[in-house]
Amino acid sequence: MNFSRRHLLKHVPFTGLAALAATGHSEETSPWLKISLQQYSFNHQLRKGELDALDYPKLAVEKCGISALEYFNGFIMDKANDTAWFAELKKRCDDLGVENQLMLLKNDRALDDADAMTRKQAAEDYRPWLEGCKTLGCHSVRVDVRSAGDPAEVKKQAIDGLNQLCDIAKPYGIDIIVENHGNHSSNGQWVADLMTALDRENCGTLPDFGNFKDYDKYQGVKDMLPWARAICAKVHHIEEDGSAKNTDFSRMLKTVKDGGFKGYIGIEFEGKSDPIAGIIGTKKLIEKTLAELG
After folding, report:
1. What is the per-residue pLDDT across 83-109, written as a single tens digit (0 to 9) for each?
2. CA–CA separation, 74 vs 142, rounded Å?
3. What is the DSSP letter of 154?
4. How many CB atoms lie within 10 A of CB 222?
């Protein structure tokens, strides 16, 4: 990211400059993998009102050294149709040189609900968020299909709901990306079968390191990689030696590289410790692993 000295002095205080220097402010970590940041990493601060959602880009750039950003609508449910709010967020992002990637979307209605009308309503629910993401310049929205029931029947329901949402999203130029997030979607092969059957140009996957439950996470990521538009590096704790608890990053990133993925890996830190320390620790781990992989 090319920042002029004048821009830095105007927008980033001395403490922010120090943070940028300490973290090595660059997403050019590898020719094939770059680092982004998921807003959910600041879940507790945003829910408690200690961080305003409009200030998230500034915090991410100044304190974490990351300017490729992801969002979560759960923190801004009252902004669904607020075009002025999204315009203000986009302005702040532009002032900081931020590149917006995607938004994680929650919905009380399920795209793969057993009821056809509920599926239709669920798809429509996403429309205002697609409009907001278009304003921000995001390439995708991150959704889930995690209803319980017979795996084959739920898959049919998911295909119907996702087809409807893909049709709605197409004019916005935004892709729909499905993550592994509970019930059958936590099985990588089930998601792969879903994508094969769906076969939509504007629908892909987002493998999340942390949500495979009883399914092998390394196999799960491998299963979903052929359709991946982004990767989620979910981490709950960084050990003293710099490794991540419960995930072997050397093995995982080799799996990602061998799968031919090129794009962004989003840090989603969900630990109980300081999120900035957790984010920076995860960032350093990714950069170290990429250097080792070559």
Report:
1. 999 999 999 999 999 999 999 999 999
2. 12
3. H
4. 18
CATH of domain 5-293: 3.20.20.150
79-82, Cβ contacts within 8 angstroms, sequence gap of 24 or more: 79/53, 79/132, 80/128, 80/129, 80/132, 81/128, 81/131
pTM over 0.85: yes
CA 151/CA 174 separation, integer angstroms: 28
Q: What is the per-residue DSSP string for 106-117? A: --SS-TT-SSHH
- Reply yes or no on whether the pLDDT at 156 is more than 50: yes
Question: Count of CB atoms within 10 A of residue 256's CB?
Answer: 26
Where does residue 259 rank: exposed (0-12), middle (13-18), buried (19+ CB within 10 A)? middle
Q: Give the span between the Cα atoms of 125 and 266, in whole angstroms.
A: 25
* φ, ψ dihedrals at 267, nearest 5°: -75, 125
Residue 65, SS3 per DSSP: coil
Phi-psi region of 176 (alpha: psi -120 to 50; beta: other; left: phi over 0): beta
